[in-house]
Write a structure and sequence with these properties.
Strand content: 5-15%
Distance between the termini: 65 Å
Strand order of the largest sheet: 9-14-8-15-16-7-17
Number of helices: 38
Shape: elongated
Structural class: alpha/beta
Radius of gyration: 40 Å
Largest sheet: 7 strands, parallel
Length: 910
């Protein structure tokens, strides 16, 4: 296969002979690299290389201006904005949100050589009509808004003048200046011949420059378009070149030349639908692996073109390891590096700081960052100060943290790099970030990680750049604006991949494929909204005004994508087009119109194969987790059995034996966290201990309504006291904690009011509160001591009937305490509350044998139901016979736990 660049070069060599006095102008620098390679291949002797320039460098050379960076442009535009726009002005942070859109519009206006006086006057008139009102006086907002549109031309002029004074320009300004300097340039290069190669869509300035040079010199232009598209009057691939052939005077005498017959040559086109984006990357990886296995040399002339460049990361991971010599033309985005998240977290830490200090989660997030873990680790890695600080914050339950609190915990010098008292100004923050980078660098130097050092170097450059901008532009004086600028700079920064641009598999974006031809092409994300990009309109200029002044709209942008798409297909033999079958707002829409157009083309449809690919899904066999009881585990079980199984721990076993194994044997508890709001267990503890303290004076006495009424004024102080004990360093005066405090007050108050009503109707005697019970049980087949133990909330007597009472702050219903089948008590977790009540009744019976007893729960979330009693077949009286039946089931349950031959098997939780 002969590429377009080689084909054109051979024609030029044949016509010109020598290349020394030629100036080649191409759409991109990358095309220039491939042209140089083609020249070296087709030159037999040593020659002086011709001048090869990209169109942007070529225009810059004519204009005498240098391109200003996007950041410089934004700052200069804001400086012009503050001097020209009257009325209320936005801060730099607010301005940066819309300033880039205005920059794009100014850029476009200049590139298309629009009469600025007319278009700005037109835009102002449109806004006047949009905001016309019969009211004599306009609101301040409308007045300021109209003042902005009135001053748009003045802002544009001030901005361009400011840039030109420094010898700089945005792309549009550079193009406008180049047009003004064109005649002088033509005279200075009269002895050289210009060759324009491979262009398609041109802005008005480029058209003027190329036409003028073609008409006034012996320059030539070579188009990379197949005759098939040029001769079709409606095909978008030839949209621009057909326009040029009709409109340019140059082509009245010299017919426009296009290439012949490449597109209709036999091809293998595979169109594959794949679900979601990452699957596309995996599929491309599998295709590359197949191509490599079939014919290794095939990959030397293969390109993967990413319609959506965010697929680069998953694609790199999907390429088979055996494929070497990959060249990636796109850089790795610096904002995806692990270091980016550290500085974003630091910005967030200080932007969101208030008078209380730093919110603990922001502090622990920074300290848990991998780079901070490295910085705060000791040389032998035995102690990590960052972890120690986090643990102290949790144990002390600090919701807000300040420098003084942190210094109480640790005095390490590295802490000053992250948390500092000094008045936080933008220069101080940048200085601290630079110092932090150097401190991390020392640690990474010791490990010799080259990639990490490259990240640090680039971020050091970035913060130095920010520092220079802060010095030059004093209006950048708050962290929010600095953060916005940091993200803006970071979004355009990339780490370049090392590779050979002329060999091996090529991975590139759509625009980088201009003028390049490959035998095998794999193109991803051929979906609407991506290829082509669709009706996105990031501009302040309305569509009808764009049309009127010849500015590009989505129609022209679609034609650009169509040209690039078909140009890739022209000379390729093997083509793989991959699209996402799952339409998504963020990941593109349905299959692209470009694919539908291909399928509808009878001249090419015979070469097309359509497939749907999807990941091979292997359903894993469900493994039942089973823990065998070895000698060590049995020793742990014996220790717990001797100490005593609690009713709650036995309920855990009923729910899931694996939970019992983890929580009650291995003691794996949930991680300690700062309690911002009262946790359920803390809430329950406060309620229990409040009631215990209030009722202690009534032990061994009968409850009197008047005595209980006297408790009501004491509730607030008692609850507050127990909050202070169990929920330290937290204010109860605001937010969810204030609600929780009032909920506890209400629970206790409602309970006592219920008790007052009961005391009026019944004789209630308190026998005991918070009784610690422990009972030995003789389980058949178990040859070591076993106990059950627990704390009984209350034992009382009502009208001569003994009651075992348990308090529950969660919701319990009567159905949880009704029992019809005794096996359910140790098999169904739904009956765990009934199981716990019977455990307490069983233990109390061993302490004080009773003929009959009732057991019930006060559920504070279901307080209106009163005491919910355990009942067996609607009988709430627990007799010795009832306890005998329970003992049998209890022995079965404890026997299973203590049986060395019965493993802990995970139970599916319903």
């Amino acid at each position: 296969m002969q590429s377009f660049l080689e084909e054109t070069l051979l024609t030029i060599i044949k016509k010109e002979g020598s290349l020394e006095n030629l100036i080649f102008v191409l759409p991109s620098k990358r095309a220039g690299t491939f042209l140089k390679n083609a020249i070296s291949k087709h030159t037999s002797s040593t020659i002086f290389a011709p001048e090869i320039q990209s169109i942007e460098d070529f225009v810059e050379n004519i204009s005498g201006l240098a391109y200003a960076s996007s950041t410089q442009q934004l700052f200069e535009l804001y400086k012009a904005y503050t001097t020209t726009v009257k009325g209320e002005q936005d801060t730099f942070y607010a301005f940066s949100k819309w300033g880039t859109t205005l920059l794009q519009d100014f850029n476009e206006i200049d590139r298309y050589l629009v009469d600025t006086k007319k278009i700005f006057s037109h835009l102002n008139a449109v806004q006047e009509i949009n905001h016309w009102t019969v009211e004599k006086d306009k609101s301040t907002i409308i007045t300021n808004y109209m003042a902005f549109w009135n001053s748009l031309e003045e802002l544009y002029t001030a901005f361009n003048t400011s840039l030109k004074q420094d010898g700089l320009g945005h792309q549009g300004l550079v193009y406008r200046e180049a047009c003004a300097n064109l005649n002088a340039y033509i005279q200075s290069t009269s002895k050289q011949k210009h060759l324009f190669i491979g262009f398609n869509a041109l802005n008005t300035a480029e058209e003027l420059i190329i036409q003028t040079i073609l008409e006034n010199t012996n320059a030539e232009i070579y188009w990379d378009l197949d005759e098939y598209f040029y001769s079709d009057p409606v095909h978008d691939a030839g949209f621009f070149i057909r326009q040029f052939s009709k409109q340019w005077h140059y082509f009245k005498d010299k017919p426009l030349q296009v290439t012949n017959g490449n597109y209709l040559t036999p091809k293998n086109i595979t169109i594959t639908g794949v679900p979601k984006n990452v699957s596309q990357a995996k599929y491309i990886g599998s295709v590359l692996g197949k191509l490599y296995n079939d014919k290794k040399s095939m990959l030397t002339n293969t390109a993967v073109v990413l319609g959506d460049e965010t697929l680069l990361n998953p694609l790199i991971n999907a390429i088979p390891e055996e494929i070497n010599g990959i060249n990636i033309t796109m850089g790795f985005p610096l904002h995806k590096s692990p270091l980016e998240s550290l500085f974003s977290q630091l910005f967030d830490l200080y932007i969101r700081k208030d008078e209380k200090g730093w919110y603990y989660q922001h502090v622990t997030t920074v300290l848990n960052h991998p780079y901070m873990q490295l910085l705060f680790a000791t040389e032998d890695n035995t102690i990590n100060t960052a972890d120690a600080i986090c643990n102290q914050i949790k144990s002390r339950n600090w919701i807000y943290v300040d420098v003084a609190k942190l210094q109480l915990i640790s005095s390490t010098s590295n802490l000053d790099l992250l948390f500092y008292k000094s008045n936080l100004t933008v220069p101080v923050f940048i200085k601290k970030c630079l110092a932090l980078i150097l401190a991390v660098k020392e640690k990474i130097n010791a490990e010799g990680n080259g990639l990490e050092l490259e990240y640090l170097y680039r971020f050091h450059q970035l913060f130095n750049q920010l520092n220079n901008l802060v010095v030059k532009y004093p209006f950048l004086n708050d962290l929010q604006s600095l953060f916005g600028l940091y993200k803006e700079l970071l979004s355009s920064e990339t780490l370049d991949f090392k590779g050979e641009p002329l060999k091996g598999l090529q991975i590139m974006g759509m625009l980088e494929s201009r003028n390049l031809d490959f035998e095998t092409v794999l193109l991803t994300s051929v979906n609407e909204g991506i290829l082509p990009s669709g009706k996105s309109n990031n501009s302040f200029i309305p569509f009808d005004i764009k049309k009127m002044y010849g500015l590009p709209t989505y129609k022209e942008k679609d034609a650009v994508y169509t040209y690039h798409f078909y140009r890739l297909l022209q000379r390729a033999k093997n083509i793989y087009l991959v699209y996402n079958t799952e339409p998504d707002v963020l990941e593109g829409g349905e299959v692209s119109r470009l694919i539908r157009q291909l399928l509808a083309d009878s001249n090419i449809s015979n070469y097309i194969t359509e497939t749907i690919a999807f990941p091979e899904i292997k359903s894993p066999k469900k493994k039942v987790v089973s823990i065998q009881k070895d000698a060590h585990l049995m020793e742990l079980i014996k220790g717990i059995a001797a100490y005593g199984f609690s009713p709650t721990s036995l309920s855990n076993y009923i729910r899931n034996p694996l939970d019992f194994y983890k929580k009650n044997i291995l003691k794996i508890n949930e991680l300690e966290e700062v309690e911002e709001t009262v946790a359920a267990n803390t809430f329950g503890t406060i309620v229990h201990e409040t009631l215990d303290e209030l009722y202690q004076p009534f032990v061994n006495t009968f409850l009197e309504a008047e005595q209980l009424k006297a408790l009501l004024p004491k509730i607030n102080s008692t609850v507050r006291k127990h909050f202070a004990i169990h929920y330290k360093n937290v204010s109860l005066e605001e937010g969810k904690n204030l609600i929780a405090f009032n909920v506890v007050l209400k629970y206790v108050e409602n309970f006592i009011k219920l008790e007052i009503e009961s005391a009026k109707k019944h004789k209630i005697k308190i026998i005991g509160l918070e009784l610690s019970l422990k009972t030995a049980i003789n389980v058949p087949g178990v040859n070591f001591p076993v106990h059950i133990k627990g704390k009984l909330d209350r034992i009382d007597e009502i009208d001569g009937v003994l009651r075992v009472i348990d308090y529950k702050t969660g919701k319990v219903e009567q159905r949880n305490l009704n029992l019809s089948n005794w096996e359910d008590i140790v098999e169904e977790y739904d009956k765990s509350k009934a199981f716990q009540l019977l455990c307490y009744a069983y233990m109390y019976n061993h302490l004080v044998p009773v003929d009959k007893v009732e057991a019930g729960i006060f559920s504070f979330k279901n307080i209106k139901a009163g005491i919910l009693k355990f009942s067996e077949n609607k009988n709430s009286i627990i007799t010795q016979d009832t306890l005998l039946k329970f003992t049998k089931e209890l022995h079965k349950l404890v026997g299973a736990i203590c049986d060395p031959d019965q493993p802990f098997v995970a139970k599916e939780i319903k």
